[in-house]
Amino acid sequence: MAIIARRKSVVVNIGGVKVGGSNPVVVQSMTNTDTADVTGTVNQVMALANAGSELVRVTVNTEEAAKAVPRIVDTLNLFGMKVPIIGDFHYNGHILLKKYPECAKALSKYRINPGNVNIGRKTDDNYRTMIECAMEYGKPVRIGVNWGSLDGTLLTRMMDENAKSATPLNAADVTKRAIVVSAIESAAMAESYGLPHDKIILSAKVSAVQDLIDVYRMLAAECDLPLHLGLTEAGMGAKGIVATTAALSILLQEGIGDTIRASLTPLPNGDRTEEVLVSQQILQSLGIRSFTPQVTACPGCGRTTSTFFQELADQIQTYLREQMPLWKEKYTGVEEMKVAVMGCIVNGPGESKHANIGISLPGTAEDPKAPVYVDGKLVTTLKGDGIVDDFTGMVNQYVERTYGANQPAAVN
């Protein structure tokens, strides 16, 4: 794994998942079901958790949603799914948490947006109520600032102060500064009410890559609280994935970030677990954490007119991911394994030698045979129609032989 100097922060315990300090960067996701739909929400939470989400956030916006939360958590426990559930509150969280104490107890963390807790009020009573609920039930809080719902009073005040400055900043820089100030001041306010320092996580999300980097660099320099990273409203498809990866990778490389989420917009009826896989892949590509064996495959060219190597690469990557729930319980370190599926002789043998196990399939005009390399050495050459099954079998043998030996001996 890559050695990246992590920013020092306090450690926050979220339902048994430790965030901050030297603990691994945690992958988080959020459901998009109606939380009042217990069955639908449970199914999606389980799908996200099975995909590798270590924390799952749900919307708590109505009385029906608040009533459903304890049933959701109880049902997950019945299925043996212990993933911590986070409640996302906006506007009426102070009412719901007080009116439905079983909801407040069942959640592992509350997410509060300081920009929309006390709208239209001159006091901070609503915010204080939510913090007091967190204190009563021993729950941590993520204070999540978002530039789409930034505290208007704070922003106006800072804009006015900036206008009077001898060296005024531009409006964009003042806004970024206001996001950071909102997070820091909200955390200080929560502590003034009695919330322990090690019960607070901060986030400060924007939707532009360079702005996000600027905001988190400032935030990281001014506090020792764990930080949740995410490019808010990242978008759909390639745009959302690339923008999220660009922003989070720079910050993670600088040691900033303790939990992450890829806030992707799925296609209608699309797979919500994509955001989990993207977050995992960012961490794995940076060498920060490993989640599943990785497949190296060439992009294809005129030498690889057959789609066979592409199909094999996809089949192997899918197979590895499907096996991980079982493998991670049996084979220590298997998530670090590297597999190569190459399409011709140009780079095929070389890449295969660099992988733990690799196959170089025949390209155009090459002999119809596929050399297989294990730990850098040629061990066999596969031919015929059974290459897929034969190679998959060799992968299984390699896992058993290499990672099965890492298991501690049974104690009688």
Topology of this protein?
Elements: E1 12-14, E2 17-19, E3 26-30, H1 38-51, E4 55-59, H2 63-78, E5 85-89, H3 93-99, H4 101-106, E6 109-112, H5 125-137, E7 141-146, H6 152-163, H7 171-192, E8 200-205, H8 209-222, E9 228-229, E10 235-236, H9 237-253, E11 259-260, E12 264-265, H10 274-285, E13 294-297, H11 308-330, E14 338-342, H12 348-354, E15 357-360, E16 370-374, E17 377-382, H13 387-403
Parallel strand pairs: 3-4, 3-11, 4-5, 5-6, 6-7, 7-8, 9-11, 10-12, 13-14, 14-15
Antiparallel strand pairs: 1-2, 15-16, 16-17
CATH-scheme architecture of the largest domain: Alpha-Beta Barrel
Enumerate the spans where pLDDT stays under 50 for 5 or more consecutive residues.
none
Which superfamily, in CATH terms, is the homologous superfamily of the largest domain?
Dihydropteroate synthase-like
CATH class label of the largest domain: Alpha Beta
Overall number of structural domains: 2
Structural class: alpha/beta
What's the overall average pLDDT, rounded? Answer: 94
Strand percentage, roughly? Answer: 15-25%
Biggest sheet architecture = 8 strands, parallel
Number of helices: 13
* Spatial strand order of the main sheet: 8-7-6-5-4-3-11-9
CATH topology of the largest domain: TIM Barrel
Number of strand segments: 17
- From the spread of the alpha carbons, the general shape counts as elongated
Cα(first) to Cα(last) distance is: 34 Å
Percent range of helical residues: 40-55%
Task: Tell me the radius of gyration.
Answer: 24 Å
Q: Write the H/E string, N to C.
A: EEEHEHEHHEHEHHEHEEHEEHEHEHEEEH
